[in-house]
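re: that chain from earlier
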Amino acid sequence: MPCNADVIIIGGGLAGLVAGIHLSQKKFRVILVEKQAYPHHKVCGEYVSNEVLPYLEQLGVSVDELGPSRINRFQLSTVSGKSVESKLPLGGFGVSRYRLDDFLYQKALLSGVRVLQTQAEAVQFEDNQFTVTTSGNETYTANLVIGAYGKRSLLDKQLNRAFMHQASPWLGVKAHYRADIPNDQVSLHNFEGGYCGLSQVEEGIVNACYLAHYSSFKQYKNVAEFQERVLRKNPFLNRFFASATPLFDKPLVISQLSFAKKQPVENHVLMSGDTAGLIHPLCGNGMAMAIHSAKILAELIEMHYQPHSFDWVTIDRATLEKQYTLAWTHEFNKRLTAGRALQYVLQSPFATSLVMKGVQLTPGILPLIIKQTHGNPLVAA
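^ sequence. v structure.
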């Protein structure tokens, strides 16, 4: 039976859009399924490491057109207000998902990606072919499916992914503000039960995004009270929220964030971005990881198969899946492990105090820690 596409991508965030642009430019027939209309906001730190810039430029994506902030400094503070600062080894840029995702969406359309504005309800793999059913009960077939639908989805439950059986106590909150903060700095501020990142995106807008443990949050009525009673105990956050002007009617909230280990391939679906593994936001590198994982996957697909002429009789599907799993593990396991370790440290006031003292005594330690969650500049294979 002829397929509607060579590749169906479920999810139109960074990983899905970048993979779609890459593959479509290489003449693959790509269908991308995204449930939300562009542009839209997402809960995200909105800081991107410069490691992805060479690859984006090779795809014809120039982030300069978005007017991003240029970030080269990092600040960390404790609940009590002790702080340390450091240069960022590679530096990065700040840009909202509202603007970046829409920009990539337009690039994807120009590259030939067919975008379906609908929800993927089911994915079936049978007779060496995928069938994706959407909310309108329409079906589309392809030889490959990429899962790039984000941190958590009903598709994860359908695929019986292991992390869905574990309760997750984390929630994320994000909003934009007008505020006076350094435009070249990303900062991370501890509070009881979590931490909040502050950085500028385009047009001087400040993104405030924080991760909170539900046990800390649940005793308060709402986000506003939690910010007032908990976040503002940190002097840096107190000064920020005292003077900042909100640009959203209300903050965006996402719950049940899972940092448990995920498999890069599930029932032959190739997972990318947060769908394959979610790094702790304190590392500030989730957006770069999503773009990098899309690059790895797209290049492996390009290496193994020719568009429009997949020969599944002579080419073993398992080879692609094995190589992608190995490549994902090699590139990201160290980062994810480092992220979990940093998360553990920052949850403990005593451990955080020890780290702060160590960094103050030996300032060169902090850039070395940062490097553990970042990669090298990406170029095409």
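The radius of gyration is 21 Å.
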